[in-house]
Amino acid sequence: MKKIISNSIESSRKFRAAAVFFMLAAGFLYGMPGITQYIPDASGEYVYFRDYTFGRESYAGFLTYDNTTFEARYYAPEDKKALKPEQTIVSLFTIDPGADYVKFTGEKFLTTITPDDADVINYLHELMLDLATLRKKAGPINPDTVSLSGKTAYFIDQGLTIPQQSNVFGGAIKTTYDYLVPLFNIKKITAPDDKLLLQLVTAGGITSSADTSFLAFKGIFESAAAAPHQFLPPKDAKSVTYTYSNEDSGAKTFRQEVTLDDFWTQSMANLWLLGNNAILSMNSIVNQNGITERYLDRLTRKILLGTETSYSDLTKLRLEKTGKKISVTSTYYQYDTQNITHDIKIISHMDDRHYGYFLLTVFDNVYQAHKKYFDSIIKSYSLSKSN
After folding, report:
1. Of 117, 143, 146, 254, which sits with the fewest C-beta atoms within 10 Å of its C-beta?
2. Cα 47 to the chain's mean position, in Å?
3. Alpha helices in 171-224 (DSSP H)
């Protein structure tokens, strides 16, 4: 049985996933002094690294507000074995945008500082200076130098790896770069023997002054604290093929299709629910400004970023690029509900102004128990021009 649903771009914008892309049209774009970014950083974007040079679990995060104001945060959870309390240091600082390097011009601490924090504060300063210097010396980081297609689909292992010298890490290192990562474009830093020194664990973008995502991050938790969700794939369900078509005035019409079963319920023209276990949508993204250069790469960066205390584990993320199609499989940690979700996002190039967008979000324990069921849904998705 086939159900055809055709809806306008305006109606499809009601679906919450479309909000991921609002910063492409709004918001200001910046970059570190002395560095020309292939994808300029947007206000509110941040990165968090796991720092393996400390004797305890430690994270260093950096957030950009504009080309003069940044925020740095060090976080270490309580270490009961070593009898070390939780430690948090947050610094808001300004830099000289006219300099050819990171030159600090002011600093304000947003947490109470004790004498015991002095070494970590100095380290945060040195780390930011070092990361910016490494990035500047790396030269162009763009699709001509970085390949997203290769032997591995794991995002953390993709990119351009080059030997460098670091002041903070004591000499010879290897740095892996990727233009999809905000701020420094750095994914990881290893010693010459491949021992991890610093690794990207998550990246995101705060959406408002009330968004606490950057300050709330406390690492990636191992398992969901929330009660596991229960689901059994139906044995006698009937297949249903749904079609979603854009009706953007003056544009060619494209058809997106996916095959589900009758246990899914249609909530909107482009949105389906599997009880409380999964949500699926098909959407059409319109490039309003008509500038096609880098647009797909900017869309890809946006879907890698977490928002509003929902953090993507970038060490587990898989990214596959085939022609003008991007597939991203990621694990999200929901701090507010203590749930873990499994997300599959597919962006497909339609024409110079239109992109198809497929999203399937499933609670991770449900997906892991029934991979075959959900993978068959993903494989059924297709996009084509309407006749």
Report:
1. 143
2. 9
3. 213-216
DSSP label of 65? S
For 154-169, write each residue's pLDDT tens digit.
Answer: 999 999 999 999 999 9
**Which tens digit of pLDDT belongs to each residue from 101-122?**
888 899 999 999 999 899 999 9
Comparing CA positions, the residue from 236, 256, 254 lying closest to residue 244 is 256
Could you count the other beta carbons within 10 Å of the beta carbon of residue 1? 8
What is residue 18's DSSP assignment?
G
Q: How far apart are the first and last CA of the chain?
A: 20
264 φψ region: left (φ > 0), alpha (ψ -120 to 50), beta (else): beta
pLDDT interval class at 292 (50, 70, 90): low
What tokens were used for 335?
């701090």
323-382 residue pLDDT tens:
788 999 999 998 888 889 999 999 988 887 788 999 999 999 999 999 999 999 999 999
Q: In the numeric block, which tokens belong to residue 240?
A: 């249903």
* SS3 state at 118: helix
How far is Cα 245 from Cα 8, in angstroms, rounded to an integer? Answer: 8
Contact 70, 64 (CB under 8 A): yes
The pTM for the full model equals: 0.88
- As a residue count, the chain comes to 387
Distance CA 77, CA 54 (A): 12
As given in the structure block, the two tokens for residue 361 are 């979000």
H/E run at residue 42: strand 41-42
Element (H or E) spanning 136, and its range?
Answer: helix 118-138
- Whole-number Å distance between alpha carbons of 72 and 92: 7
- The whole-angstrom distance between residue 107's C-alpha and the CA centroid of its chain comes to 28
Rounded CA-CA distance 5/287 in Å is: 22
**For residues 224 and 362, is the Cβ–Cβ distance under 8 A?**
no
What is the β-pairing status of strands 239-245 and 2-6? parallel
| SS3 at position 128 | helix
Reference 47, options 71, 77, 27; nearest CA is 71
